[in-house]
Amino acid sequence: MKKFRKLAAITLVGTMAISLFTACGNSGGETKTEDGKTLVRFSVGGSAGELAQYEKAVDAFNEQSDTVQVEMTGLPGDNYNEKIMTSLNSKTAPDCFYSEEATFGELEKSGMLLDLTEFLENEDSSLKTADIPESILKNFMYEDNIYGVPVDCNPMVIYYNKDLIESLGLQSPQELYDAGEWNFAALQEMAEALRDAGNVGFVYENYWAPLYSVISSDPDSLYSEDMSTAYFDSNRVTEGLTWLNDNIQSDAFTYAGTLESGESADTLFVSGKAGMLYAGRWFVADFTDLSFTYDVVPFPYYQTPDEVLSAMPSSPMVINKKTENPEAVWEFISFYCGEEGQRLRMEGQGNAVPTIEGLEDIVLTGEPEHAQYFLDAVDISFTYPSAEATHPGLTDALNEEVEKMLVGEQDVETTQANMQSLATEMLAEE
Question: Which H helix or E strand runs over 39?
């Protein structure tokens, strides 16, 4: 799913869309439909294209369920997480909703989420622990209990405007990749050429996934295994931050946080102004009627080709601990996050990559030409750091320091020192 905080205003999809703040079972709202079904309220953020895909799965569930009716709410704007947190604190939350990796820890530690372990370990459940990749599921666990179910995964790749790059007489990222030359220097050189021709070279968005792709060839090495020590003071982090900052200051890269209101990485790309961006499959649902041909390529390597990697965001579906109907909610979630729900949500121009084995074919239909890279990236991807998942606020604190560097308020040395200091301090907190 596209990062909630980056979303522009969206249109609520279908007749199922309702206001989050007008009704909720936890605040005494009606929990039965007119025909006697149990009502489950489900909230999610996303673009219009994404919401249309989600609605397919919700509609299918409602058609096959004799006992449960789901109402989906698409939450517009760029403050999805704030709306969810406000609703939880005011007891006006939906029964289930998408969370983000960076806020999941806060939700869980606040005691707001239902423990799903019993559901997932029930032999009669249609969705079990064994169906979910351990590398993803671990991010939604705390003290061996499971509090979230991945709805899908989104290994990230470089999107590029194939027509624009070819018009400048440049080798395409695919050609460079085939030649074993798709590295940090090649990305920089291409961004500079695009800039010199009056375009936006590469749009950089500041959150954990792009950052750790830049500053580490092995993001697990940023924290000790026991999560007691941070290593943001390493030479590799210095080199990555320096490379990123140099490109931002030279305008080879454009920081998305400095764009004018109404502009974003995807709008720049759709308009043909931006040559490259780094994202998951969430843009495929919206890149269906472009005036140019686009394609994707893996994120470049730092020094050697065997260092090619990808960040892989994966949003969990969670259940409000105060829901009055946990069994009914689980019936929906096990469908939505299971094989049938994932296929319905991601077939064609879907917005993510399945976590259920045997569904790889749905990624290979439609655009882009090299959609296989989304699948290949699963095996070389890193997920959200466990240290940050279990220490709410750490990710935001680190991103804020990088933000200061990107807008020219502090240098690389200060940024790196502050990141190390903040991480050390927050890891020491209980």
Answer: strand 38-44
Rounded distance between C-alpha atoms, residue 388 and residue 223, angstroms: 10
User: How far is residue 368 CA from its own chain's centroid?
Assistant: 19
DSSP, collapsed to helix, strand or coil, labels residue 45 as coil
Task: Residue 12: name the closest of 69, 52, 63, 67 by CA.
Answer: 52
Rounded-to-integer distance, Cα 392 and Cα 311, Å: 20
Q: 């440049």: which residue's tokens?
A: 170
| Element housing 85 (H / E) | helix 80-89
Distance, in Å, from the CA atom of 363 to the CA atom of 346, rounded to the nearest integer, reads: 7
Sign of the CA dihedral running 260, 263, 264, 269: negative
Q: Which residues contact 22 (CB under 8 A, 6 or more apart)?
A: none
Cα gap 374→310, rounded to integer Å: 10
Neighbours of 125 (CB within 10 A): 17
pLDDT in tens, the chain (430 residues): 554 333 322 223 333 333 333 333 443 345 888 888 999 999 998 878 778 889 999 999 999 999 999 999 887 666 788 888 777 776 667 999 999 887 887 788 888 899 999 999 999 999 999 999 888 888 898 888 999 999 999 999 999 999 999 999 999 999 999 999 999 999 999 999 999 999 999 999 999 999 999 999 777 789 999 999 999 999 999 999 999 999 999 999 999 999 998 899 999 999 999 999 999 998 987 898 899 999 999 999 998 888 888 899 998 999 999 899 999 999 999 999 999 999 998 887 678 999 988 898 989 887 899 999 999 998 889 989 888 888 888 999 999 999 999 999 999 999 999 999 999 999 998 6
Structure tokens at 275: 């040559």
Q: Which residue has the tokens 């899908």?
A: 152
Distance CA 87, CA 83 (A): 6
Distance CA 150, CA 133 (A): 9
Name the 3-class secondary structure at 254: strand
Domain annotation for the chain: domains and CATH numbers: 4-153+314-357 (3.40.190.10), 157-311+384-427 (3.40.190.10)
